[in-house]
# Entry
Amino acid sequence: MTGGDRFAPELSWCGLLAAQLAAAGSVDPVELGVRPAALPDEWCPVPATGRVLHRSGPVLRPRVAEGTWPDAASTAYAEAVARALDDGEVTSVETDQLIEVARAWQVGDDVVNRVHERLVLDRELSAESRRHLDVVARSRALAA
# Structure
């Protein structure tokens, strides 16, 4: 099959559907009797911030329990810190990533400090890792 022939059945079906919609005089699916299945009452328990974070890679499994943080920005930053702390060390590359996440989500220094306190509290981190987290906190304090 050539490239044009491969989609011939789909294209002819689309042409038929377009003709039927034009004959009906409407392209509104509700007017045609198409109704969505049951919609959830609440889409997401975290309040919308109006900000977006574009992901260029696959969606990773969350490491921070849902509803732990008061808003999406705090949750995103806490998630980034949890990922950085996975191996027990915070590298300079992870420091740069944490600064970028905090900047992208416009996380304030108060949130950064609160996240660090809660997620680092019981961990045995090297002085170097603690220094890296301090760099992130200072960078957000300077940005404010």
Summary: The chain has two domains: 1-36, 72-143. The chain is about 55% helix and 0% strand. The mean pLDDT is 79. The radius of gyration is 24 Å.
